[in-house]
Structure formats: structure tokens, C-alpha cells
């Protein structure tokens, strides 16, 4: 059982991790995309500007937190730190504040505690836990499935991230089967109704 100081320290660590992630994501945007290294940096920049990588990171933070409440707080602290660093850095560099994108990502940050609370249960057994695991995995699949005909590195990353989550979240092969069923349903549902575009627009 962690005491109050230890809990506060963990929250602060995730907040700092978010700050570092936001700073790095924006810094990568400023690197010229010339040559082979520049092209690689450009790919990383495109990945960091999409929702997939942040869903992946948040899912890992949530699943390995001690309690669902802790997972919700840790993920929220991470996103707050990331957003503050990213957009403050943007203002310092360009003297411009992109209100539209800040609101969109701010909406994601506000929804992240609920999503993290749900994902925490993904490492247990049963159909409910399988659904909890399938939600982030299905989202990543829906974002990455077009890799098979576009060969987009960003879509490829989303697919790899979904495979990693599929390998580490279910506890056994029977749970994997349950997760697979819900993952297919989730990815088809998200793709068919294009729900993400209504929530996050063109992010």
C-alpha cells in the first residue's frame, strides 16, 4: 500500500514524462526533413501527431498501474503534461497558439481518465476484461489496417502497436480468443461509422 507521498511522486513522474514527451514531439517537428535521417524524423513526427502512439502509451500506463483509479490519474497527468509542453513550446517558437488542435487534444485528455479506468481491467479474465482490452487494440487496428494497401509507416506503427498490446494484455490463450472477437467487432465498428473523425477530426 503506497502512502500519500509515494502516490504524489508517481503522479508527478507521469506528469514529467508527459512534459518530456510533448517537448520531444514538438522538437521533432522543427527538424528539417532533408536526406535519409530527415525522412526518418519526418515519419516519427507524423506518428507523434496521430492518436495511435498516445493510445498505445496510455494503455500501457493504465494497465500497469496499481488500481483503476491510479491508472486514470496517471494517464490524465501524462496527457496534461504533454499538452502543456507541446503547445507552450509552439507558442514560444511561432508566437502562435493553435486553438482548434488544442481543444481537440484537450478533449482527448479529458476523456483519458475514463478510458484508462476501463483499460486497467484488461489484464483480468472474462468477457468484460476482453472487451476492455479490445477497445484500444481495435482502435489501433482501425487506424492501421490501411497499411496493407497504402504501406504508410504511420499505419504500420498502429498495427505493430496493436499487436504488442494484444500480446501483453490478455492473460492466456483463452482470453486472447475473447479479445480477438471483440477486437474485430470494435475495429469494424470504428471503421464503418468513422467515429474517430467525429471526435478528433483530422488528428
Automatic annotation (TrEMBL):
<dbReference type="InterPro" id="IPR045393">
    <property type="entry name" value="DUF6518"/>
</dbReference>
<keyword id="KW-1133">Transmembrane helix</keyword>
<feature type="transmembrane region" description="Helical">
    <location>
        <begin position="127"/>
        <end position="145"/>
    </location>
</feature>
<feature type="transmembrane region" description="Helical">
    <location>
        <begin position="12"/>
        <end position="28"/>
    </location>
</feature>
<feature type="transmembrane region" description="Helical">
    <location>
        <begin position="101"/>
        <end position="120"/>
    </location>
</feature>
<feature type="transmembrane region" description="Helical">
    <location>
        <begin position="71"/>
        <end position="89"/>
    </location>
</feature>
<keyword id="KW-0472">Membrane</keyword>
<protein>
    <submittedName>
        <fullName>Uncharacterized protein</fullName>
    </submittedName>
</protein>
<feature type="transmembrane region" description="Helical">
    <location>
        <begin position="40"/>
        <end position="64"/>
    </location>
</feature>
<keyword id="KW-0812">Transmembrane</keyword>
<dbReference type="Pfam" id="PF20128">
    <property type="entry name" value="DUF6518"/>
</dbReference>
<feature type="transmembrane region" description="Helical">
    <location>
        <begin position="151"/>
        <end position="169"/>
    </location>
</feature>
<feature type="transmembrane region" description="Helical">
    <location>
        <begin position="181"/>
        <end position="200"/>
    </location>
</feature>
Amino acid at each position: 500500500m503506497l502512502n500519500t507521498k509515494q502516490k504524489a511522486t508517481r503522479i508527478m513522474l507521469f506528469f514529467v514524462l508527459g512534459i518530456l514527451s510533448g517537448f520531444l514531439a514538438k522538437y521533432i517537428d522543427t527538424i528539417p526533413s532533408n536526406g535519409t535521417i530527415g525522412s526518418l524524423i519526418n515519419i516519427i513526427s507524423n506518428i507523434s501527431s496521430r492518436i495511435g502512439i498516445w493510445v498505445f502509451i496510455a494503455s500501457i500506463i493504465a494497465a500497469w498501474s496499481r488500481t483503476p483509479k491510479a491508472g486514470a490519474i496517471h494517464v490524465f497527468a501524462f496527457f496534461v503534461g504533454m499538452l502543456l509542453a507541446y503547445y507552450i513550446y509552439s507558442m514560444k517558437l511561432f508566437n502562435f497558439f493553435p486553438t482548434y488542435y488544442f481543444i481537440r487534444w484537450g478533449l482527448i485528455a479529458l476523456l483519458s481518465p475514463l478510458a484508462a479506468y476501463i483499460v486497467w481491467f484488461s489484464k483480468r479474465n472474462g468477457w468484460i476484461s476482453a472487451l476492455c482490452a479490445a477497445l484500444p487494440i481495435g482502435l489501433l487496428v482501425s487506424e492501421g489496417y490501411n497499411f496493407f494497401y497504402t504501406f504508410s509507416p504511420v499505419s504500420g506503427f498502429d498495427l505493430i502497436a496493436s499487436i504488442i498490446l494484444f500480446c501483453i494484455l490478455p492473460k492466456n490463450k483463452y482470453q486472447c480468443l475473447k479479445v480477438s472477437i471483440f477486437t474485430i467487432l470494435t475495429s469494424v465498428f470504428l471503421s464503418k461509422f468513422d467515429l474517430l473523425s467525429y471526435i478528433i477530426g483530422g488528428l
